[in-house]
Amino acid sequence: KNIGKQLFERSLSYILKHNSGVQVLLLLVNEEWKTAIKIYKNYGFKELRKINDIFPNSDGIIMQKNLKEK
Known about the structure:
The protein is of the alpha+beta class and about 70 residues long. About 35% of the residues lie in helices and about 35% in strands.
């Protein structure tokens, strides 16, 4: 496994275990990071909206995961 995916998995696991009051997680992702976006989608994150020019020479995507959905 790559380090980025491991870090994400551990962070998500920690949040879910220690923050029972959290209902929504938001991520800001560089739209050029296609592999990261795919990983986040595999964990249930959905693209919420695009933000133009938030990164140098690139747009960003806000991704959201609702933790209280069944």
